Amino acid sequence: MTTPLEIGAGETALFWILAPISVIAALGLLFARKSVHAALSMIVVMLIAGVFYIANEAPFVGIIQIVVYSGAVMMLFLFVVMLVGRDASDSLIETIRGQRLATVLVTLGLVALLTVVVGQVTWGGAVGLAATNTETGNVTGLAYLIFGRYVWIFEVSALLLITAAVASMVLAHRTRLAPPPNQRAWAARRFREGKHLAGLPAPGVYARHNAVDTPALLPDGSISELSVSRVLAARSQVASPERFADAQDEIEREIEEGSER
Amino acid sequence: MPTVFEAPEINWAAIAPMLVVMAGGLIGIVVEAFVPRRRRHSVQVALSVVALVLAFVALVTLTVDNRVKTLGGSVVMDGMSVFLQGSLIVFGLLGVLTMAEKFGGDRPDAFTPMGAAIPGSAYEAAADRAGLATSEVFPLALFSLSGMMMFVAAGDLITMFVALEVLSLPLYVLVGLARRRRLLSQEASLKYFLLGAFASAFFLFGSALLYGYAATTDLDGIAAAITETRPGLEPLLVPAILLVLVGLLFKVGAVPFHSWTPDAYQGAPTPVTGFMAAATKLAAFGAILRFVYVGVEGTRWSWEVGLAVIAALTMVVGAVLSVTQTDIKRLLAYSSIAHAGFILVGVLAFSTLGLRGVMFYLLAYGLMTIAAFAIVSMVRQGGTEATQLSQWAGLGQRHPILAATFGFLLLAFAGIPLTSGFTAKFAAFAPAIESGTLGVVLVVIGVLASAVTAFVYVRIIVLMYFSDATSEDVVAAEASPLTTAAVAVGAVATVVLGIVPGPVLELAAQASELIR
Questions:
Q1: Res. B244: pLDDT tops 90
Q2: Which of A151, A174, A178 lies at the smallest CB-CB distance from B116?
């Protein structure tokens, strides 16, 4: 056996500062109401795990953790959240009465049990990776394991990736059943139905604001529902055009006052 | 860590069956991309059948003579692996046959034309009219099957975990692709996925603790570490074993990890339910056998009581709750939970005979389950499956052969003599009685639970034969030779294994050796 490794004060301090943050972030992942907050907490957990790997003399794994997980995977996750919509309306109604209380009790019981059990363990001294890192090299040693002892698992994980790709296509991809209507077809349809012959009213108010979430105002000052997308309306992300109309009124009043002077 | 690169020795003959099934799945994916839509179904079915037959041939010609530990210990092809992989391939073949059933239509009857369509939407109807079909189910089933074959042969915890995921992920998708009652199917898929991910986390946590204890994930290494004992680390061992077992017991649907079973069985397309009930259960029990017998038997006195409690609970809860069910698929789900308990009794015998009994039970149960679910998929009212028990009333008067076959399978589930169910129960319970007091107690509970389930099955038989039909339009759909073959194989096997079980029991006995 090699001699146990001395753990420096710096590393100890690093652990005791980052570990609680990591735990809090992990709890944030569970209890955050918004999925974006949960994803951000997850990134914090992943980053801290990366830092721990580096502190444990495994720089390669640490960097991979940060680049691949925090960088690529979690960013992908955020993109998905943004594309799908960040609907936070989880139903918190208990379908089975007392379920949440029972869950909390059982969870606390399990946590207490595992804490007591793991707390009784006396760990041997840390060995450290210094020997491996100098003799074989950090990355080389990992490669030896991945392409040697664990090559079967490495190859078989390809099946997991293929399954994931096929599954996402099966569950989410909609084949186009008919060619998309072109402009000519749209126009023909408008005239056939005899509605909105000149197209739907465009969003925006008096050239002051032309964002798609700002509905147009009709001559009588009421809002034109047709000018904003139904999707935005359903998500209640439609801005109020009143303040632009008010600003317009203000200007008109000022011009009137100016001309009276 | 190794200081020089050592390429692991690969015994290609030993892993040939797994490679053939995997290759079948991969070619199936390519077929999806390049073969015209209207020919995809027949190509996929033919490809799957050919791959499975080839895999079986490879198993009986190459692998049986190459019982080795290969790929650095990741794959252990011993007698148990060969027997269980052979059974899995048979289940896969029967499963593919039932999944391919069209019932006179122009594409597989059980699967939705378009998984991405919102249930009940105009787009879904348009997809149906356009003649789309999710023929991806066949490669997915092959992937799942290859994961199961890896699972029963996994020699270390990491391989076991990857195999668990390879077998589970395609199943989560397959469960959500039912053609009718789409919302129920999607709900089942989501529940199975979330709870499955949760169980995988337990498995990983347990593996991490075991690695902390033994400094290796190889099952033989863990066994060696247990005999050496690790001072200071002892408290880790029992929780680690129990956590790993939670992950594995989830897959067999043992109480209290069974809550997904009725929902997933009910929501899944019926052929998938049959495949899942037979093959997943067998694969998970294979992994439990290997983990328990090879890995952690050395410390069995410290956790076998826990496992025995789970076995007893599983039998009792499965049997009692099956009494109250009104849906035939849910009823069979609770019956499968009870069967998981019976099989656990055999596992707890801790003997070669127990191993033999469990393997025989898994084969017999799988064959009757696939046939039973195939029959469930045939009974229809107004074009959809008649899964309500009340709809089955009087079926025996209109379809005597079908009802007789189903009744016979139910008797086999109950374990009536002259069916494979009886032989299987005997083979699993007898070694348990010899193993000691705990075994005797479990067998008594098992026999009582069997009596309760027998009541449930007999009630269905009475319903089919001696009550008047509530409505006349419940009919058995005209099945193609595919489903007929699957039902026939299941039923004939149930008879043969019940009357002359000798040869297969002998085969199982020869196969009950584990390479440690």
A1: yes
A2: A174
pLDDT at A86 over 70: no
Question: B-chain residues within 8 Å CB-CB of A114?
Answer: 239
Chain A neighbors of B256, CB-CB under 8 A: none
User: With an 8 Å Cβ cutoff, are B116 and A160 in contact?
Assistant: no
Distance (Å) from the alpha carbon of B169 to chain A's nearest alpha carbon: 7
**Structural domains in chain A (count):** 2
Largest CA distance in chain A: 98
Least confident of A144-158, B70-84, B458-472: B458-472
B24 neighbors B141 (Cβ within 8 angstroms): no
Helix or strand run (H / E) with residue A133: helix A130-135
Residues from chain B that touch A122, judged by Cβ atoms under 8 A, are: 231-233
Do residues B219 and B155 touch, judged by C-beta distance below 8 A?
Answer: yes
* Strand pairing report for B379-381 and B474-476: antiparallel
What is the three-class DSSP state of A217?
strand
Cβ of B239 within 8 Å of Cβ of A152? The answer is no
CB contact under 8 A, A167 and B232: no
Over residues A184-203, the mean pLDDT reads: 86
- The separation between the first and the last C-alpha atoms of chain A, rounded to the nearest angstrom, is 98
Is residue A109 one of the residues assigned to a domain? no
Helix (H, G, I), strand (E, B) or coil at B382: coil
* Model confidence pLDDT, tens digit, residues B301-351: 999 999 999 999 999 999 999 999 999 999 999 999 999 999 999 999 999
Whether chain A has a CB inside 8 Å of the CB on B73: the answer is: yes
Name the percent of chain B lying above pLDDT 70. 100
More confident residue, A129 or A64: A64
Judge whether residue B425 has pLDDT over 70: yes
Residues of A with Cβ-Cβ distance to B143 under 8 angstroms: 159, 162-163
Cα B304 from chain centroid?
A: 24
Q: Mean pLDDT, chain B, as a whole number?
A: 93
A83 belongs to a structural domain? yes
Domain ranges, residue A220: 201-260
State how far the Cα of A232 lies from the Cα of A223, in Å rounded to an integer.
Answer: 15
Q: Residue B76 belongs to what H/E stretch?
A: strand B75-76
Q: Which of A144, A152, A156 to mutate to test the interface with B (most CBs of B within 10 A)?
A: A152
A152 within a domain of the structure (yes/no): no
pLDDT of A180 higher than 50: yes
B158 vs A153, A166, A169: nearest CB: A153
In a domain, A212, yes or no: yes
Could you read off the pLDDT of B151-164 as tens digits, one per residue?
999 999 999 999 99
Q: Is B155 on the interface with A (CB under 8 A)?
A: no
Tokens of A258: 């100016």
Inter-chain touch B1–A172, beta carbons under 8 Å = no
Asked if A159's CB is within 8 angstroms of B146's CB, the reply is yes
pTM for the predicted model, two decimal places: 0.90
ipTM exceeding 0.90? yes
Question: Concatenated DSSP letters for B288-329?
Answer: HHIIIIIISGGGGGGTHHHHHHHHHHHHHHHHHHHHT--BHH
CATH code, domain with A40 = 1.20.120.1200
Residue A246 pLDDT exceeds 90: no
Give pLDDT tens digits for B6-48.
Answer: 888 999 999 999 999 999 999 999 999 999 988 999 999 999 9
Q: Which residues of B touch A160 (CB under 8 A)?
A: 162, 165-166, 169
**pLDDT at residue A250 in the model:** 85
Closest CA to B59 of B507, B420, B505: B507
Among the partner residues A117, A172, A175, nearest to B235 by beta-carbon distance: A117
Contact at CB, B232 and A132, closer than 8 angstroms: no
**What mean pLDDT, rounded, does chain A reach?**
84
Phi, psi of B382 (to 5 degrees): 60, 35
Last residue of a domain, one of A66, A88, A110: A88
